[in-house]
Structure formats: structure tokens, C-alpha cells
């Protein structure tokens, strides 16, 4: 008697688990009538038929079919195997190649025509069901109820489906965020204040600027959530399934596709504050990315602690009003031993003095460029000599990647396994491609031109001359900071010595000189900031 494998599946965890047992009983009765011997059973509980990904039972069935463990697969109906036309046709093709029949209790033996028709009907049924669910949710919104997930500041009303009520403690946080933002406070500072005060965030363990900023196209985030202005908005995004991975991906819908209903009883933020916040958001959206957040100081974002490598930021001001910096790790976690507070002005002056004194030397720059050219020639020579080996490794890397993708598509590789394997294989392939491209390209020799050196020296001198009043020169500060950042990669600040001297290392860029990519090695300039240590301010 032919050996039979029974497969059963139900779609969601809202369905009765006995559905699997009922399907198996029906299939066993069919086997008895048709003279088949059930030898193995496969099942997938609460798994959609829209994709083969994540269905361990189906994957095991396909794997055992190759070992001739059974002759027939019996299902209640073909849509138990899949409700996707492409997937059902692929399953039928692979099982047929393995010499395994598919039989459905209600339809008999599956052939190409039946698979095509049932695949089409199953997919249409699934898509039609999704449309009906969306229609029902639209009706919920039109009735003034909420059809989305939990929103910060609200909770479901007990015993009333779809209706929300305001949580006053969270609503107070929302009002505070809107008031601070409307008054010009950046989201990053707002999030930092909430974290320091221990205010519980909507999700996760801390507030982030993105939690407040959100996304205008998707209408999410605190600032863009119209529910706070007393409007229920539904259908902001739609979920589509990636056919390559089986994962659901969200995509923003156009505003014309959204459904909006007034719900003034859910308003948390007054209309004036809401409009001020939205106007501010709209104004910032029109700015160039470089204008949205101008560095407040010449070295903002460039300072690094020599002890731990973390950034250094403004800590406070001295009694004389001068800005002092400190290691960020000391402030955030206290795990760095560089606890000194240092005058920013001293570091700025030391950096520019050192750049003017040492980087103006053409011989220094030429030495770095020569080293760069020599190294490029050496690496290119090695690559050309190893061209054949590189081509072979590239072909092998591509084959391994193709095999992994095929295994994923056929269900032999799980999503978690694919997430771990595919990025490594792609990275290896891309590395080999770059190595092969290096074999084919002629090394570019960089030459220094007198005009470039003169412009570089003028830039350094100009930066030094405007240092004294750069913080107060609103018209010049943007150009100053932009020019400076073309020359400096980072500034490493060490701990003050006993005599008050602070070791500072400037890591510079040579892109401004050579007009190309960043130099592979930064130009290191060691300088000393004298009298930079500020005694603690009384009362701090």
C-alpha cells in the first residue's frame, strides 16, 4: 500500500487548535478509503498560508519527500499547503520531481490544472478576506472608535471595544513635550530631561529624540500623532509581505487614502500649541540638512576623551561665564577616570595654534602624500599578482550566496538562519568584488599643487584670526565652522597634568589638499593647552 504523509494547518491563534486534529481525522478517513497507509504527520499551527516562511511542518515535509519517506501527501484541501499561487505551484513542482503525489480530500489527485485553479482561488480568497477586515476597521473609525494599537496617553475603556480614555499622568507628559517643542527646545534635549527624571517612555527603557520627532509621512511619533489634537486617523500605513524573506514590511499610505474622524473627547493638546508645533516642524522640514542643526561651538562633535574614547560635551559655565567641557561618559555613567572640567576656549586656541604652526609646513603634507602614493602602488601590485585567486574566490562567494538564497526560498533555511548567514555572505562577495576592481584599476597618484597649498594655509590663518569672536559673529560662524571641519577629523583631549597643561592631539584631514577621498591616515598634531583646568565652581 502507498505510504502517505498527512499535512494540516490553521492560520491564526484565534482559531481552535482542534482544527488540526479535525483535519488529520478527515485525512485518515480518506487514506482508509483509498488504500493508503499513513506513516507520518506534519502540521503548522497558527501559520498563515500566505507564505512558506516560518512553517516548520511544511519545511520538514519537503525535506523528507526528497528521502522517499512517503509516496503521497494528503491534505484536506490544497489551500492548507498554501494560499499563494507561486508557492503552491512551487510545492507541486518539487514534490512531483521527488515522485510524491498530492491528494486533497475534497478534490482528489492534484494535477497542474487543479493546482493553478486552487492557487488562484486561494489567493483571491485571502486577499478578499484582507479587504473585508480593512472595511470593518474603517467602519470602526467612522463610528468614532479607535482601530489602531495603543497610543501613549490613552488606554482602552473597560468593557467597550475600540473606545479609549485619557491617562492623565501620561497626558501631562505629552503636553509638556508639545510645550517645550513649540518653544524651540530640541527633541534630543526634551528626551534627555525625561530620561533624567525617570519618566517611563511609551516603549523600551528610555526616551529617544525619534520617539518625539516621529515621521511626517507615516504620521507617527509624539509630535505628529493627530490623536493628541482630537482626531482619529486610520490607514496611515499598509503592511506588505516581502516575497524574498516572508517578512511583513510597512509602507506609508498617501494622505488621500487615510480615514479621519473628529474625537474631541480624546484631545490632550490645545489647538494653539498643536499648530505652533506643526508650523515649527514644517519650517524645519524646508531647511537644508546642514542648516537644521548648526554646531554651537567650533569643536562641537569633534572632541574625544583620551582616556575612554567617548565624546566630550559642554558641562557648565565657570563663574566668569566661560564654557567648560567634560567627558560624556563621566556624566552619563561615571565609568571614566577623566573627571576634569576643562575650558573649551583653551582647547580651541591650542588646536588652531597647533594647526597654524605645524600643518602649514608643506614638507609635512608632502611626506604624507608620498606615503599614501607608495602604499597604494604596493597594494595595487599585490592585487594584480593575485588576480586569478581573487576571481576564483569571488565566483565561490557568489555561488555560496546563491545557494543560501535558494535554500531560503525553498524553505530549507529559516528566517533566523538567513538573517545570520546572508549578510556575511553578501559582505564577503562585495569584498571580493572590491579586490577584483582594484586589480583592474590603475593606481591614482595624488599630486600637490602650489595653489592648493596656498589656499590651505590661508584657510588655517583665517580660522585662527576669527577665533576670538567666532562665538558672537552670527554671519561668519557658519562658514568658519564649515571650513574648519574640512581640515579636522577629531580632537583628542587628555587629562591635565599637575602643572595644568592639557595634552591635545588633532587628527586632521588631507581631503582639502588633494581634492579626493579622505587620507587613509589622519594627520596627527600634538599640542598643549595651558592653564586649561578650571577649579570646581563653588556650590556645584
UniProtKB/TrEMBL annotation:
GO MF term set: DNA binding; DNA strand exchange activity
Matching InterPro entries: DNA_bind_recomb_sf (IPR038109), DNA_bind_recombinase_dom (IPR011109), Resolv_N (IPR006119), Resolvase-like_N_sf (IPR036162), SSR_resolvase (IPR050639), Zn_ribbon_recom_dom (IPR025827)
Protein keywords: Coiled coil
Gene3D superfamilies to which the protein is assigned, alphabetical: Putative Large Serine Recombinase, Chain B, Domain 2 (3.90.1750.20), Resolvase, N-terminal catalytic domain (3.40.50.1390)
Family matches, as SMART domains: Resolvase
UniProt xrefs under PROSITE patterns: RECOMBINASE_DNA_BIND, RECOMBINASES_3
Residues forming coiled coils: 380-414
Domain Resolvase/invertase-type recombinase catalytic: 3-152
Stored Pfam families: Recombinase (PF07508), Resolvase (PF00239), Zn_ribbon_recom (PF13408)
Domain Recombinase: 151-287
Keyword Lipid metabolism attached: no
PANTHER family: DNA RECOMBINASE-RELATED (PTHR30461:SF23), DNA-INVERTASE FROM LAMBDOID PROPHAGE (PTHR30461)
Protein name as catalogued: Recombinase family protein
Taxonomic source organism: Lichenifustis flavocetrariae
Amino acid at each position: 500500500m502507498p505510504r502517505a504523509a498527512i499535512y494540516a494547518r490553521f492560520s491564526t491563534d484565534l482559531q481552535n487548535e482542534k482544527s488540526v486534529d479535525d483535519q488529520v481525522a478527515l485525512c485518515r478517513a480518506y487514506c482508509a478509503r483509498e488504500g493508503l497507509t499513513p506513516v507520518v504527520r506534519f502540521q503548522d499551527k497558527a501559520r498563515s498560508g500566505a507564505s512558506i516562511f516560518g512553517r516548520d511542518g511544511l519545511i520538514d515535509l519537503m525535506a523528507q519527500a526528497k528521502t522517499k519517506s512517503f509516496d503521497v501527501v494528503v491534505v484536506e484541501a490544497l489551500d492548507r499547503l498554501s494560499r499563494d499561487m507561486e508557492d503552491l505551484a512551487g510545492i507541486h513542482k518539487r514534490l512531483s520531481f521527488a515522485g510524491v503525489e498530492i491528494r486533497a480530500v475534497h478534490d482528489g489527485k492534484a494535477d497542474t490544472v487543479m493546482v493553478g485553479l486552487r492557487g488562484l482561488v486561494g489567493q483571491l480568497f485571502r486577499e478578499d478576506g484582507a479587504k473585508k477586515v480593512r472595511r470593518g476597521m474603517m467602519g470602526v473609525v467612522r463610528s468614532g472608535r479607535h482601530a489602531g494599537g495603543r497610543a501613549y496617553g490613552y488606554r482602552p475603556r473597560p468593557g467597550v471595544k475600540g473606545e479609549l480614555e485619557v491617562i492623565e499622568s501620561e497626558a501631562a507628559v505629552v503636553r509638556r513635550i508639545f510645550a517645550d517643542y513649540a518653544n524651540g527646545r530640541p527633541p534630543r534635549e526634551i528626551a534627555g530631561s525625561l530620561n533624567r527624571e525617570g519618566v517611563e517612555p511609551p516603549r523600551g527603557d528610555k526616551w529617544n529624540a525619534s520617539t518625539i520627532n516621529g515621521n511626517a509621512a507615516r504620521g507617527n511619533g509624539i509630535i505628529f500623532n493627530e490623536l493628541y489634537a482630537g482626531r482619529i486617523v486610520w490607514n496611515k500605513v499598509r503592511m506588505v509581505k516581502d516575497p524574498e524573506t516572508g517578512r511583513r514590511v510597512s509602507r506609508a499610505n498617501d494622505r488621500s487614502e487615510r480615514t479621519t474622524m473628529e474625537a474631541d473627547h480624546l484631545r490632550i493638546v490645545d489647538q494653539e500649541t498643536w499648530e505652533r508645533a506643526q508650523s515649527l516642524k514644517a519650517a524645519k522640514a524646508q531647511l537644508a540638512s546642514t542648516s537644521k542643526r548648526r554646531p554651537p561651538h567650533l569643536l562641537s562633535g569633534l572632541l574625544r576623551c583620551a582616556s575612554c574614547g567617548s565624546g566630550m560635551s559642554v558641562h557648565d559655565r565657570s563663574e566668569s561665564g566661560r564654557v567648560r567641557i567634560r567627558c560624556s561618559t563621566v556624566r552619563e555613567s561615571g565609568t571614566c577616570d577623566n573627571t576634569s572640567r576643562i575650558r573649551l576656549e583653551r582647547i580651541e586656541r591650542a588646536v588652531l595654534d597647533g594647526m597654524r604652526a605645524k600643518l602649514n609646513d608643506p614638507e609635512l603634507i608632502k611626506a604624507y602624500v608620498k606615503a599614501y602614493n607608495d602604499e597604494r602602488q604596493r597594494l595595487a601590485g599585490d592585487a594584480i599578482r593575485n588576480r586569478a585567486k581573487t576571481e576564483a574566490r569571488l565566483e565561490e562567494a557568489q555561488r555560496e550566496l546563491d545557494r543560501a538564497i535558494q535554500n531560503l526560498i525553498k524553505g530549507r533555511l529559516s528566517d533566523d538562519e538567513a538573517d545570520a548567514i546572508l549578510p556575511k555572505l553578501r559582505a564577503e562577495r562585495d569584498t571580493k568584488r572590491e579586490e577584483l576592481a582594484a586589480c583592474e584599476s590603475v593606481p591614482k597618484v595624488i599630486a600637490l599643487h602650489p595653489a592648493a597649498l596656498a589656499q590651505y594655509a590661508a584657510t588655517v590663518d583665517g580660522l585662527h584670526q576669527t577665533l576670538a569672536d567666532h562665538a558672537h559673529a552670527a554671519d561668519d560662524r557658519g562658514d568658519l565652522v564649515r571650513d574648519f571641519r574640512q581640515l579636522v577629523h577629531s580632537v583628542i583631549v587628555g587629562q591635565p597634568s599637575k602643572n595644568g597643561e592639557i595634552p591635545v592631539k588633532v587628527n586632521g584631514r588631507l581631503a582639502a589638499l588633494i581634492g579626493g577621498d579622505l587620507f587613509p591616515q589622519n594627520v596627527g598634531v600634538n599640542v598643549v593647552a595651558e592653564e586649561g583646568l578650571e577649579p570646581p565652581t563653588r556650590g556645584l
